Amino acid sequence: MRALLEVVLTIIAIVIARAILTSVMRGFVNAGRAASAPPQAAAQNAAPQQNIRAGELHKDPVCGTYVAESTPFRRQASGQTFYYCSSDCKEKHAVLAR
Ligand SMILES: [Zn+2]
Question: What's the N-to-C CA distance of the chain in angstroms?
Fold first, then answer.
C-alpha cells in the first residue's frame, strides 16, 4: 500500500513539475519575443549612421583590404594614420616599420 502511494505521489509530482516547466518555458518565449522587438527597431534606426561612417574607407597597408575609419585597429606613425582590418595586420605593419 505504501509503495502504491509513493508511485501515485511521484506521478503527481512529475505532472505538476511538467506543468510548471511548460508555463515557465512559455513565459520565456513570450519574454524573448517582447525583448527582441525593441533592439531590432534600434538597429534599423542606427543603420544610416553606420553607412555614413562606412563611407570613410582607408586601405589596410598590409593586406589591401579597405577598412572603415571607425576601426579600433589603427596606428599613427610619422604623421600618418594607418588603418588595419585586424590586430594581426596592425602588428605585422608595426614590425615592418621598425
Ligand atoms: Zn589586413
Answer: 87
What H or E segment, with its residue span, contains residue 66? Answer: strand 66-68
- The Å distance, Cα 3 to ligand 1 centre, comes to 71
C-alpha of residue 15 to centroid of ligand 1, in Å: 58
Tell the residue number behind the cell numbers 589603427, with chain if given.
Answer: 74
What is the CA(63)–ligand 1 centre distance, in A?
A: 4
CB 67 within 8 A of CB 73: yes
pLDDT of residue 51 exceeding 50: no
Q: Residue 88: enclosing H or E segment and its boundaries?
A: helix 87-97
- Mean pLDDT along residues 57-84: 94
Residues in the chain: 98
